[in-house]
Amino acid sequence: MSADEELAKDLGLLSAIAIGIGTMIGAGIFVLPGTAVARAGPLAALTFVIGGVTALFTALSASELGTAMPKSGGAYFYINRALGPLFGSISGWERVIESNS
């Protein structure tokens, strides 16, 4: 990718709907802590800390990969580049199946 090329910065209808649905599902973080505390008691706070640390490491890894290889394709591109086309294809199909279930 040369210095003059940029990734497309546009969203279609399907992308906008996916963002909206993801936001609504993600808003569950404001509802579920009460249920978690009712079931796990004080340990619920520890589970949220562990989940937050895990999410932080995941976000930092993804941002590092995205900065090092600024191409569209996400995890498929990174896996394809690191492990080869077989594992890239497997991860690509996994994403398709995951998004349709």
TrEMBL record:
Q: Say which domain of life the source belongs to.
A: Archaea
This protein's GO cellular component annotations are: membrane
- TM regions (residue ranges): 12-31, 43-62
**Which GO-annotated molecular functions does the record name?**
L-amino acid transmembrane transporter activity
Domain named Amino acid permease/ SLC12A: residues: 17-94
Q: Where found? A: Membrane
Q: Which UniProt keywords apply?
A: Membrane, Transmembrane, Transmembrane helix
Instruction: Supply the InterPro entries for this chain.
Output: AA-permease/SLC12A_dom (IPR004841), AminoAcid_Transporter (IPR050598)
What's its membrane topology?
Answer: Multi-pass membrane protein
Gene3D superfamilies in alphabetical order: Amino acid/polyamine transporter I
**Chief location of this protein within or outside the cell:** membrane
Q: Which Pfam families match?
A: AA_permease (PF00324)
Q: What is this protein called?
A: Amino acid permease-associated region
Q: Which organism does this record belong to?
A: Natrinema pellirubrum (strain DSM 15624 / CIP 106293 / JCM 10476 / NCIMB 786 / 157)
Taxonomy of origin reads: Archaea, Methanobacteriati, Methanobacteriota, Stenosarchaea group, Halobacteria
